[in-house]
Specification:
mainly alpha; 13 helices; 2 strands; 70% helix
Length: 267
């Protein structure tokens, strides 16, 4: 059973990620750093639909803040309030666990990217027979079995641990900035949660509080123990996530999609 699942995941995740990295590596003049950045952008684009529910939840939570305040004032019993809160979310088609899905997807992709990097960048970039056998028979995935990939990017060796701690620190700081921004976006709902008898009953608040500080610390310690290429991926993935949330919570997209509509003027 586990062998079958392993084969399936290798086919739908590991092998495509490996080939995608090689495609971008060839497209960007055999510059692995730019290939990783390009692949990060590509992954963010195709997984964007998974991020929309959590962004939608954050925006709706702001709109529902007055109703949550009324529930808080009306129901002082923590269990009753939690039940009424969930009923309000359900009434508006909201799932508090929606914010967890993008994180889970990112962790899964990161796990398979770790395998890609360890296999592809093993022996300081020397392409093994195992890697060569996993490549598709396409022009853009063509590399030689004994070829050594160019793993240097700026001052980093992407196949080795970043001993300067630069990328792990930047990854951790960017993750912390994203967490604080999300806390700001969710502030109305969080303010309600903090004034309830027991904040443990608010799922979104509990998840947000737990990840604000733990996730950046985990990002840093993972980064100092894995190849720098993974830290580079995580850094740009976090920055792009920040950009996604900022775009969705600003008026920019409204302006883009409504710019052709006639404006109304008031006298």
């Amino acid at each position: 059973m586990f062998e079958i699942l392993g084969t399936i995941f290798n086919t739908i995740l590991y092998q495509p990620l490996l080939n995608l990295l090689i495609v971008f590596y060839n497209m960007f003049g055999k510059e692995l750093g730019f290939a990783i950045i390009a692949m990060t952008v590509f992954i963010k684009l195709i997984t964007f639909p998974l991020s929309r529910p959590s962004i939608h939840f954050a925006k709706k939570q702001k709109e529902l803040a007055p109703q949550l305040n009324k529930l808080k004032a009306k129901y002082t019993d923590k269990k009753v309030f939690a039940q009424k809160q969930m009923e309000l979310y359900k009434e508006h088609g909201l799932n508090p666990a929606a914010g967890c899905l993008p994180i889970i997807v990112q962790i899964v992709v990161f796990g398979f990217l770790y395998r890609v990097f360890t296999d592809l960048l093993g022996a300081n970039g020397l392409v093994s027979e195992k890697v060569f056998s996993m490549l598709y028979d396409f022009p853009w995935t063509t590399i030689q079995a004994a070829e050594t990939l160019k793993t240097s990017f700026l001052m980093f060796n992407l196949a080795a641990v970043d001993k300067t701690y630069t990328l792990p620190i930047l990854s951790g700081l960017s993750q912390f900035a994203l967490s604080k921004y999300m806390a700001k976006v969710n502030k109305p709902g969080s303010e309600v949660a903090k004034t309830t008898p027991d904040t443990k009953d608010d799922i979104m608040y509990n998840v947000q509080e737990a990840t604000t500080y733990t996730l950046p610390v985990m990002t840093f310690f993972i980064g100092i123990s894995l190849p720098a290429g993974l830290s580079l991926y995580w850094l740009f993935s976090t920055l792009l996530t920040f950009f996604q949330y900022w775009m969705m919570n600003s008026d920019i997209l409204k302006y883009i999609f409504n710019k052709n509509e006639p404006r109304t003027t008031t006298n």
